[in-house]
Write a structure and sequence with these properties.
Blueprint (H helix, E strand, L loop, with lengths): L11 H10 L17 E3 L2 E3 L3 E3 L15 H12 L4 E8 L18 H19 L6 E7 L35 H21 L3 E4 L6 H6 L12 H4 L1 H14 L4 E9 L21 H12 L4 E6 L23 H18 L4 E4 L9 H10 L5 E4 L1 H5 L3 H8 L13 H7 L11 H12 L15
Parallel strand pairs: 3-4, 3-10, 4-5, 5-6, 6-7, 7-8, 8-9, 9-10
Antiparallel strand pairs: 1-2
Helix pairs in contact: 2-3, 4-7, 13-14
């Protein structure tokens, strides 16, 4: 295991040398033409092989409508040229909001969502012409144990977890089977609204420890939503079956799914029972195959939990603790997990994660991975906050500009933890530096030298 290091590479050869030194497998190709490839998606297509992950801005109104900064972000994303625009975590019930400004899809907010989508598509058309219409997905979510609809924690938990629930009393109530069954129908209602609004697809979010993700790891839960693989996947699969029964082929269904939690068994999904630091993809691959058989054409693979072990899913330079590994090791592990999933369902569109830390060298890893069949689309998250036009630069200039790149400093995450509206403090400083500074007032300095990832 290598020591954690910051990004220090001045050339692609430097990066290749470090990958070789660490004995890692990371695909690289200098032919970026493959990133321009259009991806068929049913009767539509995705105009290139680059996407933007669902990046929550926490900048909606108290009612859950998109607000000024929400419109600004999505216009910037749309003008940035990515072929797939994955709209952020959108609550399906008020009590499942992760913060008081999380956007919330409901009948009362429908017209504002339609305005957000239409303005985004208009911006893309204005920038690139009629041939470029990004494929749009809206992520439907319930925040589960991370619900904070009024700003204070109001956890709704599906299972007891000593690693993630240390502040909860032992008798804290679990969401009941009856409540989960009713909640399935709220996801369906949200999907119907998404179809009426005009989104191409909905994502039934199942990652990062939120409710659907927690249910996948509910080994210790009793009843029909816990214990066996069939029970733990029931909530997700029931939602998909019900949407299909209601809408047929009128709306595509996607899933952003954790394939590896890196939380000890029996509290983590996709982990080795003997060593939680090692993935075991038996169940995640089994689920992905079932999703594919049910007509899910698009899956977005993630890892880790941003509240517990953020470095697992978001390799960084500066954060809340020093991770026990080199960021390239985390990148390689994530890409290998994604490769195994893509190869298990070769005809599925698999969107990969883990490129932002690579800065201007990310396009070469994206191209290499697509060329070698590791994934279909390269998705960028934090990078889109810092550098919304990364895709345009890759496609039209053949390169990303280091001066515009995300520096993996974690300040966008700090804003969220401080209750502010999220964006890039460094590259979009005029808007977000004042928000960051305001949120830091009166708070203790973060000790970024502590080694805190342990159990």
């Amino acid at each position: 295991m290598a020591n954690h290091e910051k990004f220090k590479y001045n050339s692609l050869d430097d990066l290749k040398e470090e990958i070789k030194k660490l004995n890692l497998s990371i695909p690289i190709s200098e032919d970026l033409e493959i990133l321009k490839r259009r991806i068929p998606m049913g009767d539509k297509d995705i105009p290139n092989s680059l996407g933007i992950h669902p990046m929550e801005g926490c900048d909606g109104t108290a009612e859950g409508k998109p607000d000024e900064l929400t419109y600004r972000r999505y216009e910037r994303f749309a003008r940035g040229g990515a072929g797939l625009l994955w709209f952020e975590a959108t609550a399906v019930v008020k009590e499942g909001r992760a913060n008081p400004r999380q956007i919330y899809i409901c009948q009362e907010n429908k017209e504002e969502f339609k305005k957000l989508l239409n303005q985004s598509l208009a911006a893309a058309k204005d920038e690139f012409g009629d041939d470029h219409r990004p494929f749009t997905v809206v992520q439907l979510t319930h925040s589960g144990r991370y619900s904070r609809p009024t700003g204070e924690p109001e956890p709704i938990i599906a299972t007891r977890n000593p690693y993630l629930g240390r502040n909860l009393p032992e008798d804290y109530p679990l969401i009941t089977d009856e409540e989960l069954e009713r909640l399935e129908d709220r996801f369906v209602e949200a999907a119907v609204l998404a179809k009426e609004i005009g989104f191409d697809a909905v994502d039934i979010k199942a990652c990062h420890g939120y409710l659907n993700s927690e249910l996948l790891s509910a080994f210790t839960r009793e009843g029909k939503y816990g214990g066996s693989f069939e029970n733990r996947t029931r909530f997700l699969l029931n939602i998909i079956d019900k949407i299909k029964a209601r809408l047929g082929h009128q709306l595509d269904i996607a899933v952003r799914m954790n394939a590896y939690d890196s939380v000890p068994y029996p509290y983590g999904w996709g982990v080795s029972k003997d060593d939680f630091l090692k993935p075991d993809l038996t169940e995640p691959i089994k689920l992905v195959k079932i999703l594919y058989d049910k007509g899910v054409k698009l899956i977005n693979i993630s890892t880790g939990n941003p509240y517990y072990n953020p470095h697992v899913g978001r390799p960084y330079d500066i954060g809340y603790y020093i991770p026990p590994e080199h960021p390239l090791e985390g990148t390689a592990r994530m890409l290998d997990i994604i490769k195994q999933i893509q190869q298990s369902v070769p005809d599925m569109v698999v969107m990969a994660t883990g490129f932002s830390w690579l800065r201007e060298f990310a396009p070469y890893v994206a191209a290499g991975g697509i060329q070698e069949g590791w994934f279909t689309i390269a998705g960028f998250g934090r990078q889109a906050f810092a550098y919304p036009d990364f895709a345009k630069d890759i496609i039209t200039k053949g390169a990303m500009d280091r001066r515009k790149c995300c520096i993996a400093c974690s300040k966008c995450s700090e804003i969220m933890r401080d209750g502010g509206k999220a964006g890039c403090v460094i590259k979009d400083a005029k808007i977000y530096a004042p928000i960051y500074k305001e949120g830091r007032k009166g708070k203790p300095e973060i000790d970024r030298n502590r080694v805190a990832y342990h159990v």
